[in-house]
Every structure is written in structure tokens, then in C-alpha cells.
Amino acid sequence: MTPENIDLAFSLLPLQLCNTIYMVCVSAFFAVLIGLPIGIVLTIASKGHIKENLKLYKMLETLVNIGRSFPFAILMVALIPVTRWIVGTSLGTTASIVPLTIAAAPFIARLVETSLKEVDRNILEAALVMGSRTRHIIAKVLLPESLPSIVQGITLTVVNLIGYSAMAGLVGGGGLGQVAIQYGYNRFNTFIMTVTVILLIVLVQVVQWIGNGIAHRIIKKRGKIG
Amino acid sequence: MILEVEAVSKKYVHAGKTAHALKDVSLCIEKGDVYGIIGLSGAGKSTLIRCLAKLVTPSSGRILFHGNDIAHMDKTTLRTFRKNIGMIFQHFNLLSSRTVAGNIAYPLEIAGVPREEQNRRIDELLGLVGLQEKKEAYPAQLSGGEKQRVGIARALANNPEVLLCDEATSALDPKTTREILDLLNNINKNLHVTIVLITHEMEVIKRICNKVAVIDKGTIVEEGLVSDVFWDPKHPITKHFLQSSSHDLPEEFFKVISGQRKLLRLRFKGKAAGEPIISQIVKTFHVDANILLGWIDKLKTLIIGTLIIELTGESENIRNALHFLDQNAVHYEVLEK
Lengths: 226, 337
Prior knowledge:
The complex is a heterodimer of chains A (226) and B (337). Helix content of chain A is 81%, strand content 0%. Chain A contains 10 helices and no strands. Chain A is elongated. The N and C termini of chain A lie far apart (49 Å). Chain B is of the alpha/beta class. Chain B has 2 domains: 241 residues, P-loop containing nucleotide triphosphate hydrolases (Rossmann fold, 3-Layer(aba) Sandwich); 84 residues, Alpha-Beta Plaits, CATH 3.30.70. Chain B contains 12 helices and 14 strands. In chain B, the strands form 3 sheets. In chain B, strands 6-7-8-3-9-10 form a 6-stranded mixed sheet, sandwiched between helices. A 4-stranded antiparallel sheet of chain B has the order 2-1-4-5, covered by helices on one side. In chain B, strand 12 and strand 13 form a beta hairpin. Chain B is elongated, with a radius of gyration of 24 Å. Chain B starts with a strand and ends with a strand. At the A-B interface, helix 6 and helix 7 of A face helix 2, strand 6 and helix 3 of B.
């Protein structure tokens, strides 16, 4: 732990931590924007649900499965042309957002589907008898009823995205991952490596803690815990 | 005629096998009725009430609401139908994400009722079901009876003509069951809401229904006024329901039946209960009558008394006594087993 190292850490880490947070937050936002509607459609189009449409279900499910079967490292490289087309470059933090979003969206879709399917069919039946339309059932029944579970799912996705974003650092994606590679690995700087790892651990803990806190508060408000 | 079920059948095909949940069921439900449909589990009652709620489509036959086939309704008629049919459930099916007030608001929201009108209506309904102080509670904080009251308030929010009750008291304890049944009775009497309920408990039928249909293996085996069906049940299933709702005589009493010892079930209604039939046969025919069991069934419109007695004496005398009962049109049955 030399003074140079500490200086280096201070000049690198705050900025790259911000970059990581930026990548993760923006990609999580877009992933939810894409994944949530897909998850909803996957739910209501499934067998025996309110808008059963097995063709649509099969199609979306295949799409989601394809998305989820790519290892992130490969997806990132494979998507370089797409990233260039959208962002204009395939390097840097903003460019990493594209593969991160595309990796997380199918994941969110699956988690949302699982959460929404937990809503008791009898409650849907009650809503149907009262004359609910599909949009009522989605907005007033399915999403509110499964909100704690969806929050947990998004938390899980954000944690995964932190891991993926570090991988993005491998190919010039910026963020803490890049610091770990450039300084910790390529230049054998154990100090920088250690601090980076600790920062990542803390970041994951904080995200998990916030997510659990929100889910717990919702459940508690609804009177399900003591 | 508010609801008519015309020759409704429902088939389910599962793994190549066809199961008939309903076979050629016909019913007429008139305005003001409290119509009970009783059956064992798997008898098809649940499918039947789901057909009435348009949650299940019959394989054949029609269901008419004010003469309109509910299977072929345009958007406006369907909306009127939905608004006029309320439903409550065995497991209440409340939204856990909403408070009591929020649950009652749901049908009003989706019907596009303005906010202030919603609030006024919510308070009115909470008063009706007696839950004013639980307005801001969540379902998880309520007891079963309270949850069902919320269910009832929610079902009545849009002033329906018909309330469908799907085993509404089956998950409740006896005291709460009585309270909920009394509430339903009041709703029928004071708000003139027609009630259709399904149940497996004769107590429910006895307490609030004026008409009953007994369903077994997908068909209606007996139907009519509760007072008639109670007085003179015909189908074995009906008798089974009546027996299980009353009192059982210990087995030992059936072992000693002979020509000189018979078990009789006597039934009385209205004025007949006033005549001293038993002391008459004892005096006239030199037989002994030992009263084993006696009880009174209070139906919605009629009180029926039942006595189980043991007659002992000379075979000849007992035959004469029975003959006397026949002549006096006493409703009795000689019990055997």
C-alpha cells in the first residue's frame, strides 16, 4: 500500500465506480422497459390465462430462451455491429449499455412471468366477474399483487448486471471491471485489484439491501408480517 | 324470470377421456329468490355457478339473463350483465395489494364511477356489512368473516340484481357462517337482490333459501320449494343431505327391531304439531311409545318438527296403531336398517 497506489486509487476508482453505476442503472432501466411488457405478454398469452395465445407465447418464449442462452462475453462481441449502429461506437460505458440491456431484458421477462403467474387464478376469476378488461387486470391486479416479487426479481437482475458490467470492462467497456483488468491484472497491482473487488462486493450488498428493503416494506404495509 | 338455465351440459375432455361435469341441467331463478344448489363435491355445482357467471362456457344449452342468451351478447348488453351479477367466493379472492376500501373501490373504478361517488358508495357499503372501522385495513389483517363481508360489499358495489355465492361460507366457522347467512338474508329482503348459492351444507339451504335444487353427478335430481323438499324428500341424495344435517340414532337401536318393536320417524308441520297423536295411540292400541329423539327444523318459511319414537307391544296392536296413523294422515316413516 504505497502512497502512489493510494493516489492512483483515488484518481481512478471514484470515476469508474460512477461509470459502473451509470451502466448498470441505465441498462437496468431499458431492460425493464423491454422485459416487463414481454413478461406480461408471456403471462397472459400462456395456456389457460386471460388472453391465451399459444402461437404468440411459443414465439416470445423462444426469443427469450435464445437471449438467455448466450454467455454474456459472446453476446457482447456478437452485438458489436448493433452497438455501433445504435451508439456510434463499440467502446466506452455508453456502448456497454446496449449488450447489457439485451442480456438483462430476457432475464427480466422470465422473472416477471414467474412473478405474475404466482397471482392466484381465483383472484383473476373474481376480477373477470366484475367486468375487468385486460388492461385493468394487468395494471390493477397482476402487477400490484406481484409487486414484492417483481422488486426482488429486478434486484436480482441488477446484481447480475453488476457482474456483467465488470465483464464489459474486458473489452474496453469502462467501469470497475476495466480498472481490475488494466491495473490489477495487466500490471499486477494487487492493491488496486483488492480495492476494486471490495468496491464491487459493497455495491452488490447495497443493491441487495435496498431491494430487500423495498420488498419487505411493501409486504409489511399489506399486513402480511406481524 | 331473471335467470334461466336451459338444458345446459358441460363436457371436459382430458387425456382422451370425456367427463360430463353437467348433463342437461335446467333451472328457473325468479326475481327475489334465494336459490340454493346443493351437491357433494364433484357433483358439478361449481361448474354450474361458473356457467352462470359466464366464467365457463357450456358445451350445449343456453343461459338466459332477462331472456338474453349470455353467450351471445353485444358489448353493451354484456356490460349490463356484468354490472348486474355480483359474485362472492369460498376463499374471498380479495386483492392483497389493496385496503378494504380499495377492494370495494375496484369494481367502481373499472365501471368509471367518479372518485367522490366512489367514496360515498364505499362508506355506504361498509355500513351495510358493518366494517366501517376496518376501512384502511389490508385483507391479511382481517378474519375470515370480515374478509367475506368485504367480498359481499365489493360484489354489491354496482347494485347488482343477482348475487352468486360460490361456497361462500364453507371456509368459515359455524358462528361466522350464521352471521354471513343473516347478512345475505337481509340483502335479499332489504335490497331485493336475487341470490343463487351453491353449497354442500343443508344448514345453509335451511337458513336462507326458499328454493333448492339437488345436484348429483352433473344432473338435477330434485328441485322445488325448500319446504316441500324438506317435508317429503324423494331422491336418496336429498335424504342423505337431510340426515347428515340432523341427528343420528345410535346403531344399537336398530338391532332390536322386530314385529313387537318398531322405530318410527314422525314429522309434523304447522297445526299438526298441536295434536296429541302419540298419547292417542298409546291409549287406544295398548302399545308403549318411547321418545328417543326429537328436534325442530326452522326453515325460512316453515317449521318442521321431527320425532323418532320406539313403539313396543303386540304385533297386532302395532299394526293397528300404524293403520291409525295412516288414517289420520300423519307423516311417518318406519325406520329399518
